[in-house]
Design a protein that fits this description.
By secondary structure, the protein is an alpha+beta fold. Helices cover 22% and strands 45% of the residues. The chain is built from four helices and 13 strands. Strand 7 and strand 8 form a beta hairpin. The protein is elongated. It starts with a helix and ends with a strand.
């Protein structure tokens, strides 16, 4: 658990660094902005056509969003050379204290937690190591664990790849490296591998993203992404979904 906490702390700092450099829609003028949304004049590219159609983009960044969309997600992320494996499973519905809840399991490395989540996203009960933890404690402790698990997904959404595929301004190079059908757990679809290179003066030193985006028919999502480069080589992060199953 200490290893996971350390990795996630570094991960949070990395997320702040990525946003600060303006990659994937950094803060400009106090508001989130996608690439090309700056206040300066932009060069006319002559086309607004996107490299890919990502109109139905879905990346769950909250526990109730994960529950609504997936019955299972297995992913891993590596930061600072430390790898963490996360396994989410939907276990069904149960009543807790007279209220309907969704029962889920979250495993991280060798730690497994069971949560009973209400319709509003609050945790009504939690179990870990055979010990049942009531709502008054489970809400704070459980949400802390759940939020840590969701950090890589929050980062994946923060990259805003759905905006990158429309970038045509100087300083950004967006390339579709490959497109092929793949199977991801119980699902299959077209998987596109994209490379995004952000160059000075937009960032102090060149930063490269490589992302794998899956088109699963009804929606598109981020399967994996990694970022390298940055001043002093400070960005070094990998994230990959290995299995998916829908509700």
């Amino acid at each position: 658990m200490k290893k996971m906490l350390s990795a996630l702390l570094v991960l949070l700092l990395l997320l702040l660094g990525i946003v600060a450099c303006g990659c994937g829609g950094g803060d400009k003028g106090g508001e989130d902005a996608a690439p090309g949304d700056g206040s300066g004049e932009e060069e006319d590219s002559g086309t607004d056509e996107a490299l890919l159609n990502l109109d139905n983009w879905e990346v769950p960044t909250k526990l109730n969003e994960m529950i609504a969309l997936f019955s299972e997600v297995n992913y891993r992320f590596t930061v600072g050379g430390v790898e963490t494996v996360v396994h989410y499973r939907y276990l069904g519905s149960e009543n807790v204290g007279g209220a309907a809840t969704d029962k889920i399991s979250l495993s991280m490395d060798e730690q497994t937690f069971t949560f009973w989540v209400g319709a509003d996203g609050s945790i009504k009960q939690m179990e870990q190591g055979g010990q049942v933890i009531p709502a008054e404690i489970a809400q704070s402790a459980g949400m802390g664990v759940a939020n840590m698990v969701l950090v890589p997904l929050v980062m994946a959404e923060g990259v805003k790849i759905q905006d990158w595929v429309r970038v045509t301004e100087p300083g950004y190079k967006v390339t579709v490296l490959s497109s092929k059908n793949e199977k991801i757990g119980d699902l299959s679809g077209m998987v596109h591998t994209l490379q995004v290179v952000v160059e000075p003066p937009l960032v102090p030193t060149e930063v490269t993203y490589v992302a794998r985006v899956a088109d699963l028919g009804d929606f598109q999502t981020m399967l994996s992404w990694e970022v390298t480069g940055g001043e002093g080589g400070t960005y070094d992060f990998k994230y990959e979904i290995e299995a998916l199953a829908l509700r």
